[in-house]
Amino acid sequence: MSFSMYEASVPVFKQILNSLSAILDKAESHAADKKIDPQALLQARLYPDMFPFLRQVQVACDFAKGCAARLAGAEVPRYEDNEKSFADLKERIERTVAFIESLPHDAIEASEQRDIVTGSGASAREFKGQVYLVHYAMPHFYFHVTTAYALLRHNGVEVGKKDFIGSY
């Protein structure tokens, strides 16, 4: 049985990002229902040296679009990181999903042994495509999505594993 680089990346990113978008709806409703300033959730942190919720979502999107682009041999689009609301974050997720859906299936499928370089200068890291996907990009993506989920759950938003996993 062969390993599908496409099936291990794009559909997974789409599933989890779409789940994250639905979780944002629940967070926004929670803030309205409980009369909580949305910024309290958007700027929530688990610890002072960690990124706030808003940045966790941005970075999760960055890993999804960056990974998919690198696997496809395409340029990674740059986003301004200027989101300030749940609606802004939902739009970023939509842009990210639209971008990864636009990438050629065959280019991603052929990326298992493609040389992938992230970072630059002294912080540059080199990988083969499959190693990059499985051991670098996916763990980082899941870390940031999980942290975003945990921040909301910690702050009283009623979400569970089913919300995190979503549907496929």
Automatic annotation (TrEMBL):
<dbReference type="InterPro" id="IPR034660">
    <property type="entry name" value="DinB/YfiT-like"/>
</dbReference>
<dbReference type="InterPro" id="IPR018531">
    <property type="entry name" value="DUF1993"/>
</dbReference>
<protein>
    <submittedName>
        <fullName>DUF1993 domain-containing protein</fullName>
    </submittedName>
</protein>
<dbReference type="Pfam" id="PF09351">
    <property type="entry name" value="DUF1993"/>
</dbReference>
